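User: We ran a pulldown and think these components assemble together. Before we commit to crystallization trials, I'd like a predicted model of the whole complex to look at. Sequences follow.
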Amino acid sequence: MAEPPPNPLTVGLERLPVHPTSLVIFGGTGDLARRKLLPALYNLGADGALPERFSLVGVSRSALPDEEFRAQAKAAVQEFSRRPADPAVLDALLADARYISGSFDDDAMYPRLCAALDGFDETAGQKLNRAFYLSTAPEFFPVIVEALGRHGLTGSDGAAVRVVIEKPFGTTLAEARELNRTVLGVLDESQVFRIDHYLGKETVQNMLAFRFANGMFEPLWNRNYIANVQITAAEDIGIGSRAGYYDNAGALRDLMQNHMMQLLSLLCMEPPVDFSADEVRSEKVKVLHAIAPPPPERTVRAQYAAGNVAGTEVPGYTGEDGVRDDSHTETFAAIRLDVENWRWAGVPFYLRTGKRLARKVTEIAVTLRPVPHQAFNQEGSVGVRPNQLIFTVQPNEGVTLKLGAKIPGTRMRVRDVNMEFLYGTTFLSQSPEAYEKLIMDAMRGDATLFTRNDEAEAQWRIMDPVVARWKHEPGPLPQYEAGSPGPPEADALLGGEDEWRAI
Amino acid sequence: MAGDLTALAVEAKTDAVWRAQDTTPSAIEAALRALLTEARARSESHVPARSLNMVCIVNREFSGEVANRLRGVGRFSASRTVVCSVSAKRTTLDATASIAVPTRTRAGIHAPMRETVVVEVGPQHLDHLETIVDPLVVTDVPTVVWSPHDHPDGLDALLGLAQVVLVDSVDEPEPAEALARARGLMERSYVVDLAWLRTTPWRERIAATFDPEKLRPDLRLISNLVVRHHPDSAIVGLLFVGWLASRLDWQLSRLSQDSAGRRTGRAHTRRQDVAIRLQSDRTMSVRGLAGMEIETANGRWLRLDRGAGGLRARYRGPRQNEREWTILGASRGEGGILGEGIRQALLRDNTYCPALRQACALVT
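Assistant: Here's a predicted model for the assembly, 867 residues in total across the polymer chains.
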């Protein structure tokens, strides 16, 4: 079939048109919807980025009239939006919003949903695309997807239907496979958007630009020049009110299996042929296939004990509300991985994540091999240290290059200095929330920043043996003081002269 | 004066100020460097922003108004703003340099510092203004120059060191002159025209309306175009028509203007002529476009008007009843438009120049 003629009016526009869309949020009154999804929709609307016909449906168990859902959504936007809400825009966004109450496994609810969506099509005089956002507990993902299939909601003549699935995508490899089987039994892979909100962050996307838009780094990006890589996702907070979720998940499943593995694959992937969704994701999957599950001696887990954070005494993990006294859930995980391919063989990749650590930071630190001859070892000098390239994902988004430089004075003494690029000081515009970017991409059908089915399973293939081992060896776990950099046991993972970066 | 123009970034407070009379550019630059070093020493989280230099040439008596506009740009403040404040009788340079830091900072999070330099200059300084400004801009950061109170000699002097010229063609009372001026500047620098940015939401919406594959051929069937604008903003309408003409290969000729200021004419296309009408809307309180209508030869009709929460759209297809809805979007206001202009200075839009060229054909 001949390609349709291009739209000459879109040339030069920053915001390209998105087909009119109805968005259904399953879990529309839930925490994620209130804190992230609804504020993201408001900000997209205020920026004029939403499709010109846009309809919103919330689906949840509580019985609410439409007006009450609109009132709750309005309050959520006012509380959590990244900028003050313009009342006129907010009212216009929610004016026609609908709410469907019902249990996700109740077949009687879906015809009502279908009628609401048909009503939007009727009002618009055209078939709107349909996007179903599954912002629910994970056990409902297969339930909802199958129900959508049974009720004929997975296809729409002349319009696209897409399903966005929140994390976690399974809690084991077997579950991930089963969920993929269910989802792909009803939907085509091109309709499925598995969220990993880290990929919506500007700094994470910038890793691609940094690697593939700058000629100076790629020649160094291999085992000949890189000594080791550390990926850290540290939080200073505890588990807050998430005990129910966290005590089942633990640090490994909460952050490492998904977000940190995404960072690792972006860092290690080969240059894709182009930046289309499948080319990028295929390269990432190749990296994951090159990684073997880590043996026991290359994994460390621990749990925080009582300590002092920001001058305040805080309880240990088992003292947190909602956590069992005998819980052996890890709040700290560190592993060492090897990427066994031509580019990376022999380079250790250290990953660590934890709660109640000394400070909040997510970063990737690439340490280069030291210079072959130390010429500047004069007295009073720290000396030349290996160069480091640090991508900071949060909170101070940017890139730092650590270099050796001469200390001013009459003698040749050298110490590390930082060459810094900071998002907050270099660009005028504020980074949009990751969810704004991802919601728009899903409505547009661009899956580049979403996890493909084989990618999700490849991540689990690496982590599943660790999850299983830790489940069968319940403890006791090493403890680390809240507010500290983590357990000393993590040092055992390091090889040779390697050392953890300070948290 | 200096009090008006310190801490130009919104939600910022002045951290340090330096003032001098009868001074030199190198003394100002040295003072600014010292202020930055001191501010950094006071707090490690203070880091200098390095996104854009903005040089403004303003009349001293209107500097307060310019300061207010610059404060309204919000997060799009330039990292270093150099204001050349011109007063008739001045012969020496007085200067104020200040550093502003965000009012809300959090421990461990970088707080970008923004710098403002106000240099009091006289008319005789304008011919060689670059010798004053050059030492004051951060090298290797793009520089945009904005001269809202004209001063062509000062602007001319700065074209060699600026990469971008910011203009607001709406400020020029006569659209033909504004278009000619913008074209002249385009030949020497990259131009960001706020009048053009006022057309952006409208361009996006028309592009979206005709984006479905089955509607794209109808772009060739446009037969009637009405553009309503603020009484001072005819040029925005002209640029919008110029954009459509440049994208759709219309041939334009001069529009005729009646006593009420209404401009009418026709565009020639390969299929048929397009009737064009630009009319001012006196009920419109803000600069820019008030609304528009597009009709196609096969009976499609779209009308867009400014409304609460966005644009109010009315649409009728060849065999359909009229439908009405709101296209979401917050009004940017004058501060927002200027902020958008500053942001656009770091980007490149290749559609403005062809639109400008076509718009010129409507008035000459």
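The first strand of chain A starts at residue 21 and ends at 26. That may be worth checking against your pulldown data before setting up trials.

User: Thanks, that helps.
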